[in-house]
Structures are given as C-alpha cells and as structure tokens.
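Colleagues,

For the teaching module next term, I've prepared a clean inverse folding example: a structure given as tokens, and then the sequence designed for it. I'd like students to try predicting residues themselves before seeing the answer, so please don't circulate the second half yet.
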C-alpha cells in the first residue's frame, strides 16, 4: 500500500509538470497512469475522473487512435460501478473508432468489453434476452478476432495476442457457466489453460487466475470438491502473488462456498471474513462488500438450522428406540409412533434441504421410505421415492436420480395420483436436461404438462428455455 501511494505521488507530479509545460501528450499519459493506479486500489470513482481527463485531452489535442484505450478504460470503470448504459456508450465509441481505422486489436478488445457488459446486464435482469443475445454475439466476435490475431501474430511482431485469446476462452466459458452448460464450459476453460501451457504463459498470470476461478465454480456446481478446492486455491495463490486483491476476495468467496456446501460453517466464516477485510480496503467495491456480508448472514443462519437438525435427529432416535422395543400386541401404539417418526423425518428433510446437506437429505429420505412401507401408504411412498430422487439429483448422481424418479412415477400412476405423476415427470426432465438428453427432457416435460391438467406444475418446475 505504501508503494502504491508513492506511485500515485510520482504520477501526480508527472501530470502537473506536463501540464505546466503544455505537453498535452504527456499530460494525457500521466492522467491515464493515475487512473490505472487508482483502479488497482479499487478507487473507481476517482480513477474515472482521471480517465475522463485523459479522454478530454486526447479528444482535443491528440490523434483519434489515442482515444481507443481511453474509451476502454472509461467503459471498464463504468462497468465496475454497474453504470451499464454509460459503459456501453464508451465501449461502442471504442468499437466505432477501431472499425474506422481497421484496427483488429482494438476491435477485439472493444467486442470483449461489450460482451461482458451485456452479460452483466443479463445477470441483473434475466428477462432481458436481448442483452443475452448481444453478449453471445460480441463474445463470439471477440473469440474469432482473438484467433485471427493469434494466427497472424508473427507478422505483427507481438505475442500479446495470447492474452486476448486466453481471455476470450475465459469469457466464453463464463457464458456457458451462466447458461448451465457445465460440460462445454469445462471444455472451453481447460482449453484456455492448455493454451497458457503451450504458449508458456507465466504461472502468476491474470489470465490463468480467471480460468482457475471459473473452473472452481464449475466443480462446485458438479460437487467435485477436490477439483474445486485445487482450482480455487490456485486462483487465490496467484492473486496473492500478483497481487490482485479483488480477485483474492472473490477466490476466498468461492472457497467459503465450498466449506458452506460441505457444512463446514466455521471454515466458511473464516474465508468470508478474510474476504470482507480485503473488500473493505477497496474504496468502491460496495457491491462486493454487500455480497460477502450476505454470505456471512446466510452461513450464520445455516449454523442455527444445523443445530435444529441435530436436535430433531435426537428426537428421531428416541422414537426409533421406542418402536424397536414395542411389543407386537401394541400395534396401534406402534403405528402412532411410526407416524411420529415419519413426521420427524419430514422435518429433517426440510432442514437438510434448507442448508443443502444433500447426503443427510438422502439418508432421511431412505429412512422415510422404509417407514411408509410399514405404514402401507402409497401416496407417502411416492413422495419418499421422489425425495430420494431429488437427493441423488442434487448430489449429481443422475442415473440413480432417474431410477428413483421413475419409481415414484410408477407408484403415483398405480394410484391415479396425477399431481405425483406430473412432478415425477418434470423431475425426470430435469435429470435428462442435466445429462444433455434434451429431446428426451422435452418429452418428459410435455408428459408432466399433460398430467398437470392446466400446466400449473409445469410452469412452476420447467425452465422457459425448454418451453421455447
């Protein structure tokens, strides 16, 4: 931090000296340097002010090509401040200037920024499909241009296009993650890492850290915890070495999420609190601070729910012991205790779902199935089989999920329970969607829709993406 202040003082002195001498090119260069130094400190509002000084000087006194990197910097600051429309104005100017002078390098950079901005707009408003299409379009253009630049790099005497290509792979992988196409996302991001290795990109490179960060996200979604930890820890280590405090904070959030999903709440809180300390040191990262605080609050609530779950488990153990020692002649009393066991298991399943404790969910669902078999209640049996399927689905064990959803559907069909049939079919559709069997998924959704009469259940469970 002390070195950062010294660099700022030097840049500010350089700017003043250039201004006094009337050297507009040097004045703009030092203003740009001030902007980048402030950006690295997370002071985006102040950085924006200096980039605007650079822009105004370049517009009045310098060739048009000088405006392109300045437009990129201003667009980036507006994007980080989530002022999306302002970001788009400067990013489109950047692209326009680049097209006018036929500069493929700047066209690639502008397309990348436009793609990321439209992607962030869609993240904030998932109903904005126009933003999603624009994101896809610009990121595809960015990828094509990066490949062209890389192939033609020798004639341009530059190796920097490796960075552009790696970033393009990362952005495309990020888009696939958001569209929940994890298989394609993993392939694209691993290709990005292979390019880094083939081109001998340094171990402590920003491109690598972004790839590791997003691979960590994929493996979290796929419940592949060891792979997730490996990539997340690599991401954090690189960010510490660069240093890149914002990236380190986001890496710690991912690590905290892994601990949270494994119900290691104290470890999760350690990660989140460390990330919060880093985010507080960044001047204009209010959204990041609020995100971390929400994660801390969610984790604290999960700790309380886990305590409730432990207490409920103790109650279930007492009920189980009572049933096991019940004499045969006390059939009615045994039945009552089994009903109490079933109700206790329902509460435990609800608590497990609330904190995403899927192994516990599976355990309680299987015990519930055994109880309802003794109660000879087919509707409850159908529900229990459905819960087992949902637990396996959330554990990413799709073949087993398919098996148990099918069993639930068969039982529901045997007793004419149309609602149960519809829910089972919709869940089967979700499994088939996750395994990439989209035609079969659509067929299962249609069958669920038909079972549900007016389609209310279908609307509640089926994504719009598959209804189109």
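(Answer key — instructors only)
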């Amino acid at each position: 931090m002390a070195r950062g202040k010294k660099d700022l003082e030097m840049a500010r002195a350089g700017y003043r000296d250039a201004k006094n001498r009337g050297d507009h090119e040097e004045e703009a260069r030092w203003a740009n340097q001030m902007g980048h130094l402030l950006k690295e400190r997370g002071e985006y509002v102040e950085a924006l002010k200096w980039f605007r000084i650079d822009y105004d000087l370049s517009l009045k006194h310098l060739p048009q090509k000088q405006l392109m990197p300045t437009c990129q910097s201003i667009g980036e600051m507006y994007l980080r401040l989530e002022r999306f429309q302002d970001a788009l104005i400067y990013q489109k100017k950047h692209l326009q200037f680049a097209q006018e002078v036929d500069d493929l390098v700047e066209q690639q950079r502008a397309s990348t920024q436009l793609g990321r901005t439209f992607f962030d707009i869609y993240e904030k408003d998932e109903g904005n499909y126009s933003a999603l299409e624009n994101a896809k379009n610009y990121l595809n253009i960015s990828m094509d241009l990066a490949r062209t630049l890389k192939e033609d790099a020798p004639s341009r005497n530059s190796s920097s296009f490796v960075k552009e290509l790696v970033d393009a792979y990362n952005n495309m992988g990020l888009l696939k993650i958001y569209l929940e196409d994890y298989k394609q996302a993993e392939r694209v991001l691993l290709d990005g890492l292979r390019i880094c290795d083939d081109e001998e990109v340094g171990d402590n490179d920003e491109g690598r850290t972004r790839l590791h960060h997003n691979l960590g996200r994929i493996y979290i979604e796929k419940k592949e915890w060891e792979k997730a930890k490996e990539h997340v820890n690599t991401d954090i280590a690189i960010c510490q070495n660069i240093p890149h405090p914002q990236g380190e904070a986001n890496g710690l959030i991912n690590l905290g999420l892994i601990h949270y999903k494994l119900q290691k709440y104290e470890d999760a809180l350690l990660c989140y609190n460390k990330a919060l300390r880093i985010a507080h040191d960044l001047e204009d990262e209010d959204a990041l601070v609020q995100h971390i605080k929400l994660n801390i609050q969610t984790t604290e609530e999960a700790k309380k729910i886990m305590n409730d779950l432990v207490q409920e488990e103790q109650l279930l153990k007492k009920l189980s012991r009572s049933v096991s020692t019940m004499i045969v002649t006390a059939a009615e009393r045994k039945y009552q205790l089994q009903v109490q066991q079933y109700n206790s298991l329902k509460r435990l399943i609800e608590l497990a779902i609330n904190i995403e404790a899927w192994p516990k969910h599976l355990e309680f669902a299987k015990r519930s199935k055994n109880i309802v078999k003794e109660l000879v209640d087919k509707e409850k049996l159908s529900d229990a089989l459905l819960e087992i399927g949902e637990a396996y689905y959330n554990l990413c064990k799709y073949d087993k999920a398919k098996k148990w959803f099918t069993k639930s559907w068969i039982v529901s069909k045997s007793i004419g329970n149309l609602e149960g049939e519809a829910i089972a079919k919709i869940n089967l559709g979700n499994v088939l969607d996750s395994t990439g069997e989209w035609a079969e998924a659509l067929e299962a959704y249609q069958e669920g829709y038909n079972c549900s009469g007016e389609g209310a259940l279908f609307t509640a469970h089926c994504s719009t993406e598959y209804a189109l």
